[in-house]
Predict the structure of TetR-like C-terminal domain-containing protein.
Amino acid sequence: MKKDLRIIKTQESLRHALLSLLKTKSIETITIAELCRLAQINRGTFYLHYKDVHEVFKEYLDVIVEDLRKSYEEPYYKTNYKIKDITADMIKIFHHVKKYQDFYQIIFDERIPMMYYYLLFDTVRTFMRDSIEEGLLTSQPDLQVDYLISYQTNAILGILIEWHRQEYKTSIKELNMQLITIVSLHNPIRMHGND
Amino acid sequence: MKKDLRIIKTQESLRHALLSLLKTKSIETITIAELCRLAQINRGTFYLHYKDVHEVFKEYLDVIVEDLRKSYEEPYYKTNYKIKDITADMIKIFHHVKKYQDFYQIIFDERIPMMYYYLLFDTVRTFMRDSIEEGLLTSQPDLQVDYLISYQTNAILGILIEWHRQEYKTSIKELNMQLITIVSLHNPIRMHGND
DNA sequence: ACTTTTAATGAACACATGTTCAATAAGTTT
DNA sequence: AAACTTATTGAACATGTGTTCATTAAAAGT
């Protein structure tokens, strides 16, 4: 059940044209008509595959997020809920964002729809869910774990927002240090024996 | 230096028309032409005041966020960086979001630009900045406080995102309890003597 | 009340959007 | 290779976008 070659060709042309246009102008100023002219695709054909320019961009983002997911699956030594473990995971995210900085500058732009943010949120959220220790749930029976996970996930994204606002000038090493300091503040009892 | 009455009338007409349209359709489907027809405003006049439909909506949001800011300025007993203080502040935000639920359902919608999220972020962020104890900065000289504040601010917004996704079904009382539990998890040493 | 200032209007323009439909061309099956 | 299936095309249409400009009308200043 392979996909029709014509579809692949059309979508590739559009993606390629979008990347080309993004080099000189912001995604918000790129029109469907303009994109189709450059890709040499009939405008009606565009609507057979996408609703707007953002949906073409989202296909790139899916690939990028998949890369993040893969980097996360790399095995490493896991112990229970410790600062070192959490930060080790989060550092991967920092590296990832830096690697695809050009894209994340778009994702965090104020004119862009929330959907991209949520895509990142949901991805990081699955990582967070996996890092919850089992003992926590039994020791805190009243805790609705979804709230905890969203809290922790968005806290990390808060770091990324701040990094974005400071135009990615902070080095990953420095960012890493800041995160460890912040998490340590919230976990003063666990300061000893780590790092 | 008062504003021209005609401007006020035009803007009020447009705001009123937008509210009316929002009762039956989503903001993303409302066109400038449609808005102007209902408001009985020439479309060219619209462009003298706004760039797009979102800018009209944003005027409402400015009022709403101002309401949040005011509620926050209510004096209450402040001690140093304790769970009770933080949660007391955050509960105000929960009440505020519930009060304007219809608006926040729009703000957290995935099709909506990030600008609204950032407006809320920046507002809550100023509250967070004010609640940082002075001793912290001297005891942690290497900490870039902007990262800490953005981390904490976005963590709270993470709770709101989760609330939104659960269609605001969680009661404020329950949400409050969840927050206290979560913050307590991160501050195990301070569990005693609070609440 | 009269004058000055400026906001709102309507018409026009080029271009974008979103959709339909018959004709064509390209890919897939046999 | 022929028959099929279906993606793409171009044309057309109504509507929306963003801008310009002379004209009108309403508010502000005197």
Notes: Residues 55-190 of chain A form one domain.
